Amino acid sequence: MARPRPAVPELARRTARERSKGCGPPGPRLGFPAMAKLLELVGLSMRLSIRVSALVPVLVLGACHDKSEDTTPKTDGADAGVPKVDPTLCDTNGKNVVTYDLNHDNKPDVWRLYKTDDEGGTKVEYMTCKQVDFDHDGRKDWVVAYNRKGNTLFEKADFDYDAKWDMSAIYDTKTGAVAEVERDTDFDGKFDVKEVYDSAGQLTSVRRDRNSDGQPDLWEQYKDGVLLAILYDDDFDGKVDRRDEIPGARPKVEMPTALDPAATGTLDEPAAGTGSATKPAPTPAAKPAPTAKPATKK
Question: Is the pTM of the predicted complex or chain greater than 0.70?
Answer without folding.
Answer: no
